[in-house]
Prior knowledge:
The structure is a single chain. By secondary structure, the chain is mainly α. It is built from 13 helices and no strands. α2 crosses α13 (246-282) and α3 (73-104) crosses α7 (161-168). It is globular, with a radius of gyration of 24 Å.
Amino acid sequence: MKKTNKKHGVSFAVRHLILLLLSLFWLIPIIWLVCNSFSTDKGINIRRFLPDAWSLENYRLLLFNSTDTIARFPIWFKNTLIIAIFSCAISSMFVLMVSYAMSRMRFKGRKTLMNIGVILGLFPGFLSMIAVYFILKSFGLTNNHWGLVLVYSGSSGLGYLIAKGFFDTISETLSEAARLEGATESQIFLKIIMPLSKPIIVYTVISAFLAPWMDFVLARIILNSGISTDWTVSIGLYNMLDRVLINNYFSQFCAGGVIISIPISILFVIMQKFYVEGITGGSVKG
């Protein structure tokens, strides 16, 4: 018995030691970025991990220096926030409606559509970006924030699987009772299913917000005019890493990376309980 407990203790310690090392490897670049955001050095410095002197000057320059034509962070942040909010609202609506239809409605070709949706979801979205770009260009939607919103939200309904699994766990008898009372399908969806689906709604909203908030590839392709006031944060920060600018803007780039992570981190911490419930609930019958 003692040998068994000893082996279990050793195994427990080894597992957690490995997890600790992996966590450190994952956290070191983030800690380094945060430290550099408070550095008094303007450029990149690989000779030391911690800066010689600490300062908030990079944050002040990034947020309040209106004369700088390179670092237009407040404008980039506003553009990103507008795109993310509208994409989140449209995408969440599409995902929840498609998920409800696939979970509760029975129609010809339902399983075929579900399989097609899953298969298409296996391919990265940017593989179709050449075709999407020329379609948007023909409608005058390149270098346009609304074109970017359309790209982010257009195929969002394909991500129905987790939300469908959550809806499958809600008793069908509630819907049947409502139909007997004369409720329409939309009334059942809005007044019965939605109030019971707070965890999956939170999960869907956060996931839909994260995609445009962190995206670089699609934004870079569509917003390609070179006008800095049209850029999102990801494009603007990437521009600071240009070899001509990096020696003067690297610390501001680090500060921008810290700032852009704060809103979504706060949102995730506040909504973590519902987020986890949404994932686990959607995995039951996904």
